[in-house]
Amino acid sequence: MNGKLIKWEDAKIHILSHVIHYGSGWFEGIRCYNTKKGSAIFRLDAHIRRLYDSAKIYRSDITYKKADLEKAIKETIRANKLKACYIRPLVYRGYGEVGVNPTGCPVDVAIAVWEWGAYLGDAALEKGIDVCVASWHRSAPNTFATMAKSSGNYLNSQLIKLEAIAGGYVEGIALDYAGNVSEGSGENIFLVRDETVFTPTLASALLPGVTRSAIITLAKKLGYPVVEMQIPREMLYTSEELFFTGTAAEITPIRSVDKIVVGEGKPGPVTKELQKAFFDVVHNGNDKYHWLTFI
């Protein structure tokens, strides 16, 4: 926290910190994998760049240099003696003044790491999950900065997730303000039809995912055309394959949407090929793309 290693139980902030009342926090989710070639962080530079971009959108200056933050992340992993972990850097407005105007509050920085397995369940990566289209939409343009990974945005994500769970689903898919497909509560989404990979554009109120961009790179490398476009809801039902991507979700197949079976109701060949290519990097350490930062 702010440059010092603190015991887990001592990592506390003041109850009147701005972030608690007004959601003024910006964070990242990053994975460190125990590859066959040693512990390595996946796309550390891209995650840190997005963190600084998120804070900049909200006129919040991070006083540490990017290289200092990257070094601190490595140190925190070493201090916890973890070979594989989830990494949570958090920039937030701390205690200063109470009110919507945040400029009188300090910009604090914390980094936490912990062990975390499959985000959507152990069987999700192999068998796929059942999802629904949420009644809650992502925000319209000029309302919230959806390209920022900000704490306040995840109130919307919570509504999507809670609705899905209450309905017996694992996850929900949000539509954008115009009714086109946006993303999951905490994942980007891809669909496959006729050996072409489709994904919504950033204009559909989605987070520019670091794993999302990696999958686009892998799909093109494997010879699949990748189309970023506005995706109408009904394409979810007529797709041959669907999958989520994200740091936590990795590449999670979707086997049904609103109880309509996707393809054959199991991970399809394109999804499995992308999973294999992705896990070859993060599990085997075969990094052709310079995505891994070894500890």
Give a structural overview:
- The protein has 295 residues and is of the alpha+beta class.
- It has 2 domains: 8-114, D-amino Acid Aminotransferase, Chain A, domain 1; 124-282, D-amino Acid Aminotransferase, Chain A, domain 2.
- 27% of the residues lie in helices and 26% in strands.
- It has 8 helices and 15 strands.
- The protein has helices at residues 18-22, 44-57, 66-79, 124-127, 154-166, 210-221, 234-238, 269-282; strands at 25-27, 30-35, 38-42, 85-93, 107-114, 129-133, 171-175, 181-184, 188-193, 196-199, 226-228, 241-246, 250-257, 260-261, 292-294.
- Strands 6, 7, 8, 9, 10, 11, 12, 13 and 14 form a 9-stranded mixed sheet that branches. Strands 1, 2, 3, 4, 5 and 15 form a 6-stranded antiparallel sheet that branches.
- A hairpin with a 2-residue loop joins β13 (250-257) and β14 (260-261).
- 42% of the residues are buried.
